[in-house]
Amino acid sequence: MENNKQPKLINPSELFNPSPYGFSHSISVESPSIICFISGQSGGVGESHSLAADFKTQVQDALNNLEIVLQNHSMTFDNIVKITLLIVDHNQEKLQIWTEEAKKVWKESFLPTSTLIPVSQLALPGMLFEIDAIAVKN
C-alpha cells in the first residue's frame, strides 16, 4: 500500500513568524518514506573544487551542488525538510545574501527547518559557506 502522506509544516502561532527569514520551525514526516541525508555542500565547483572568492557566489554554487545531489535521488528543493548552514564570519550582510538566494529555490509556503551556525573556518581554505540537508520523498 502506497503512503500518500506529505511532510507537514508547522509554525506555531505562539512563536515568531520565520517565513521572512527563509525557514520553518518544524516539519513532521509520517513514514514509510525515503529519507535522504545530504552531506555539507560547499561553493566548490568541479573536480578541482575551485572556490569563488565572494560569499554570494559560494552560496549560489553550494545551492547548485545541493540541487545536483537532490536530482540524483529524483528529488527537488521541495523535498528538503531540514538544513544546517555554516557561515564563516557570519554577519547581517551575509544573512541577507543567504535569505535572497534561499527565496529563489524555496516557496515561502513550504520552507525547510533551519539551523545557522557561525564558524571561524570550514574544511578548506577560502570556504565561506556550507549547507547540509535532510530530504524526504514519499
Structure description:
With 138 residues, this protein is an alpha+beta fold. It contains 2 helices and 6 strands, in the order E-E-E-H-E-H-E-E. It has helices at 55-72, 92-105; strands at residues 8-10, 26-28, 34-42, 80-88, 113-119, 129-137. The chain has a 4-stranded mixed β-sheet. It has a two-stranded antiparallel sheet with strand order 1-2. Helix 2 links the parallel strand 4 and strand 5 (113-119). Helix 1 packs parallel to helix 2 (92-105). The N and C termini lie close together (12 Å).
Notable traits:
138 residues, alpha+beta, two-stranded antiparallel ribbon, 29% strand, globular, RutC-like_sf, RidA family protein, YjgF/YER057c/UK114
